[in-house]
Amino acid sequence: MNRQAAWTAAAVCVIAAGCDTFQTLKTGPDGKPVSGLMNSEREIRSFIGRARDPREFAITITLNEDGAPVIVNANRCRNGLEAVSSFVSPPHTALPVLDGAVNGLRARILVDPTSSANWTSIERARAYGLIALAPPLIGGLPQHVVDQVRGTLCVAPTMALDVLPIDAALFYARASRGPLWPLSRSADAHDADFVIGWSMLRSFQAVRWDFGGRVVSFSTRPYAADEDRLLGRVQLEKDFSALVVKGMIEGKTKPILIDLAGDYEIAVDESTMDLMKQVSLGDLVLRDLRPTTLDAHGLGYAGVPHVGLRALSKYRLILDNRRNELLIEAPTAASVRAAP
Question: Which structural domain range is residue 327 located in?
């Protein structure tokens, strides 16, 4: 076996690791099939066998002492631009699913700041012209949801959110056919082709979720806070690759994950019937939140309380990357009128 063939065989094992069988159906919390069959070894081999050096896309990938990838110059955005993308999710939901373009082809994209990375599937990666990257070959599992389907790192040379172009967008392509569940998070996002997460959201100066107006804005210009509407300002926690802030629950300081793709009020490790009387995000106090469990929604980051859409979709939230803050604003009158 030559060196290239040996590398490809080893890479197939890396991507397929953790999958019980290539003929296992994925099922949702209700036990119904929601995803197709796992990709075959031949399909995985075909995809990664065409891998190209990341330097061809002006990307540098090295491994640190722990074997984790250190990626430089990916998800490149142009300065001075702002994109405003409307929700295309059903009107009854606040899920931020948007229309975008990947390599010039229309795509539906879920914006999920709990995901550390961007995700798609091998079949979508091939259909949209994404290219596996190696060496080194990088494989991974999501941390924000419980999922045992591994993915391999690949690149979309061009991508666009509204008028804002993004060069060398990186995605993990998971080895499963069909819908992206559990990464799509909900049946209301079953047709999502891609998930963009923290690694891309940190490439912008600011990202604003306006749930009443049903838009997400991506800006490469500094954000000027509307002080008259500012309800809360909280610092980002540094030890997470997700939208985790320093907040308070029942008077105790805790890291809190802000889940803007999760359909619940608050999710915690253990089941409780008691309402969460007070959750503070800076000066904003959320009261009497109905709890659920992380397990009930298949969520990761055990030990970190999650605050979800049902508690937050009445506000405008702004990720200010320049100041490493999350801002929470009251909605504008136009946003309130536009709410479904």
Answer: 230-338
